[in-house]
Task: inverse folding
């Protein structure tokens, strides 16, 4: 039986095994997918196990999306540009790092039916997933991307990487069409200190978090008459793309798939 896994720390919360094992079964593939909690010092040896095909492929989550890069033989152009790898595949004896978060975000946005063209976008946060979101937004012909992060230095580092972004002080809001929460605030029911009353209607509030399905950030967005969307589809589509890379099959996304991830 072929082995696949997701590595991260913490990893308990990960729903990737549920999703991948569901799709493996649906497609009669003799493989299984597990979650593995690693320490940073264990990454090198773990990657070696993929090299010798003890494990055929793996997903990488927080905080190792950058850590794995030096141990890989090749990066996809998107992984190179974002310095972020969430999927590893062994190809002709070479370990290749891919980033399926970008297309995951793009497909999730397409699904909202909210047009991003010529829109002003505010991203809250500057963590691991943000370069992928910026790269995806750059492909959507948005008007302006602004980053606001508690630690300003991290936003400034992103600006060195993507010169087209602006930086806004943490806690400020002006007139944006789309606000994306890419911080971890909301996972434990925290609120984000924004002046929601200042935000006009008909905006899109997007949260990368999908569990809980409605963070306080999304609740506030809804209350002020805006469209809201959580990160569930982004999660599903990044997994969809990883599955396609490993197995050459497009797995099904149906009601049952969505139900699998209802955790709250
Ligand atoms: P990392 O920063 O290690 O990549 P992450 O989970 O990808 O981790 O990102 C966490 C994001 O949530 C960061 O933007 C972080 O802000 P800082 O860069 O200032 O740490 C943000 N975040 C986490 N807790 C926060 C809090 N209490 N208030 C504001 N922002 C917070």
Result:
């Amino acid at each position: 039986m072929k082995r696949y896994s997701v590595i991260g720390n913490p990893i308990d919360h990960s729903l990737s095994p549920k999703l991948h094992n569901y799709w493996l079964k649906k497609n009669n593939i003799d493989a299984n997918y597990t979650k593995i909690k690693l320490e940073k010092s264990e990454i090198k040896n773990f990657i070696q196990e993929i090299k010798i095909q003890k494990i055929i492929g793996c997903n990488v989550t927080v905080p190792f999306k950058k850590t794995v890069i030096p141990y890989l033989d090749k990066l996809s152009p998107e992984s190179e540009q974002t310095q972020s790898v969430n999927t590893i595949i062994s190809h002709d004896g070479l370990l290749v790092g891919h980033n399926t978060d970008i297309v995951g975000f793009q497909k999730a946005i397409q699904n909202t039916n909210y047009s991003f063209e010529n829109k002003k976008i505010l991203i809250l946060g500057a963590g691991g997933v943000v370069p992928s979101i910026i790269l995806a937004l750059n492909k959507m012909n948005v008007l302006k991307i602004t980053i606001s992060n508690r630690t300003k230095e991290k936003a400034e580092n992103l600006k060195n990487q993507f010169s087209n972004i602006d930086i806004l002080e943490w806690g400020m809001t002006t007139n944006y069409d789309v606000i994306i929460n890419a911080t971890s605030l909301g996972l434990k029911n925290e609120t984000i200190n924004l002046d929601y009353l200042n935000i006009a209607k008909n905006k899109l509030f997007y949260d990368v978090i999908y569990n809980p399905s409605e963070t306080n950030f999304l609740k506030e967005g809804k209350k002020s008459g805006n469209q809201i969307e959580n990160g569930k589809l982004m999660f599903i589509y990044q997994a969809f793309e990883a599955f396609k890379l490993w197995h050459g099959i497009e797995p099904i996304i149906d009601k049952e798939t969505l139900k699998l991830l209802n955790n709250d």
Observations:
- The mean pLDDT is 95.
- The chain has two domains: 2-99+233-262, 103-230.
- Residues 62-63, 125-129, 149-151, 154, 183-185 surround 2'-monophosphoadenosine-5'-diphosphate (CB under 6 Å).
- The domain at 103-230 is CATH 3.40.50.720 (Rossmann fold).
